[in-house]
Amino acid sequence: MALEMKVPSPGESITEVEIAQWLVEDGDYVEKDQAIAEVDSDKATLELPAEESGIITLKAEEGDAVAVGAVVCHIDTDAEPPADFVSGGSDTVVEEAPVVEEKTEEVVPNPMPASTPTKDVKATPVAKEMIAANGVNAAKISGSGSNGKITKADIEAYLTSGVNTDAMVGWGGTRDEASKKMSMLRRKIASRLVSVKNETAMLTTFNEVDMKPVMDLRKKYKEAFREHHNVNLGFMSFFTKAVTEALRQFPAVNSMIDGDYMVSHDFADIGIAVSSPKGLMVPVVRNAEQMSLAEIEAEIKRLAIKARDGKIDIADMEGGTFTITNGGVFGSMLSTPIINPPQSAILGMHNIVERPVAIDGEVKIRPIMYLALSYDHRIIDGKESVGFLKTIKEMLENPSSIIFGGTDPEKVLLNL
Fold first, then answer.
1. DSSP letters of 345-390?
2. Rounded Cα distance, 62 and 38, in Å
3. In DSSP terms, which residues pair with 203 in a beta bridge?
4. Which residue in 15, 152, 186, 394 is deepest, having the highest Cβ count within 10 Å?
5. Contact in structure between 44 and 27 (CB atoms under 8 Å)
6. What pLDDT digit, counting tens, does each position of 339-385 carry?
7. DSSP 3-state percent helix, strand, coil across the chain (nearest 5)
8. What is the mean pLDDT of residues 194-220?
9. What is the DSSP letter of 27?
10. pLDDT recorded at residue 122
11. Which class for 175: exposed (0-12), middle (13-18), buried (19 or more C-beta within 10 A)?
12. φ/ψ (deg, to 5) at 287
């Protein structure tokens, strides 16, 4: 029996998706619940699982825009698996083997890879990305995966064997050009960013923070914190906690415009901008004002892993009353972040650099971070924006002040 697979609805208000990538080939045998495609909506990239086992026949091409409910493939459920088919996918097993994990850190992508077409290469999606990134000639590699597919482990073994002579030094001088259609998600992001610049009275104010108190606190308690909470103590939890307290003091920053009304929130859902293979994602930490540092760290880690693995849900990114973005992890010294609509403000963190500063009449070297607050001047005045940023600065320079009371405020803050 031929089963028609239709595009499910990724969420409310979404009527169309785009086939970003087929994870299987026409005529492959697939198992029930196996991921067969990645589809882009204007909010997220989602995996499409097979509804039944059988031989698949593709009815749409990569890059096609298809309506929700449209048929994208047929699955012949009466077909028997081929003799060489391995249940569960042998490439998945190989890629998760401990030996592969040990070698992962040794693989350094070629900074200037040669242009290698990967569309027709018989390889897993991860392997295709590695082939393109490292300028590898796939014809020289024998695939060890299901049906002879090249796997991540095959590429890593090839790159670490010392026989990769494909990567060229320099750009090659071919003067070739490549044209690639932007994903639906990227096009939506572009449209939203342009609309923010055109439709808001966006202004940015800056301040600097002496990070030594936070760094000293982390150094003093990081081992105890990890052992007690089973999660690392990072900077983001301090910033998130400081932001929630500053939002309580300056509620206009935690508001948004709805027509002629200003809607204020009695909660703090903080969007944390994270980098993923599909671009910038902003998953939301719900009710961050009620969380401890450990709970914030654990939730940020969970959401970041989902984004990195391409498993982030639309529900994870909906809503949000304020956003924090950290360009410092990429080395950014200073920037003016763009507001994430319909929110009214966003905080930009940057790299920490040792700088000479005047303290009590003396010049000392301290680890300084520049902060930037972009905000919609239509509902947030300069007094509120400057006061908000100054409150964050004061809390980070005296981190125990985030929690009031207690005989040992530092241990109260860290919930130790």
1. EEEEE--EEEEEEEETTEEEEEEEEEEEEEEETTT--HHHHHHHHH
2. 9
3. 375
4. 152
5. no
6. 999 999 999 999 999 999 999 999 999 999 999 999 999 999 999 99
7. 35, 25, 40
8. 94
9. T
10. 78
11. exposed
12. 50, 50
* 210 noted as active-site residue: no
Active-site pick, 216, 228, 309, 377: 377
What's the confidence (pLDDT) of residue 406?
42
**DSSP per residue, 313-351:** -HHHHS--SEEEEEGGGGT-----PPP-TT-SEEEEE--
Which backbone phi and psi does 364 adopt, to 5 degrees?
A: -130, 155
Res. 221: pLDDT tops 60? yes
- How far apart CA 42 and CA 37 sit, in angstroms, is 17
pLDDT band at 408 (very low <50, low <70, confident <90, very high): low
Residues 6+ positions from 78 with CB-CB distance below 8 Å:
1, 54
The neighbour count for residue 65, using CB atoms within 10 Å, is 12
Q: Which residue, among 234, 254, 233, 232, has the nearest Cα to 243 in the 3D structure?
A: 254
Task: Identify whether the C-beta of residue 27 lies closer than 8 Å to the C-beta of residue 88.
Answer: no
Looking at the DSSP assignment, which residues form a beta bridge with residue 370? 208
User: Residue 119: pLDDT above 60?
Assistant: no
Q: Which of 114, 124, 117 is nearest to 139 (CA)?
A: 117
Kindly list the structural domains of the chain, giving each domain's residue range(s) and its CATH number in brackets, ordered by start. Answer: 90-160 (no CATH), 200-414 (3.30.559.10)
Identify whether the C-beta of residue 209 lies closer than 8 Å to the C-beta of residue 261: no
10 Å Cβ neighbour count for 331? 9
For residue 412, the number of C-alpha atoms closer than 13 Å in the C-beta half-sphere is: 11
What burial letters (b/e) apply to 31-59, b meaning 16+ CB within 10 Å?
A: beebbbbbbbbbbbbbebebbebbbbebe
Residue 202 has pLDDT above 90, yes or no: yes
Task: List, in sequence order, every residue forming a beta bridge with 21; answer none if it has no partner.
Answer: 38
Which pLDDT does position 117 carry in this prediction?
53
pLDDT score, position 409 = 67
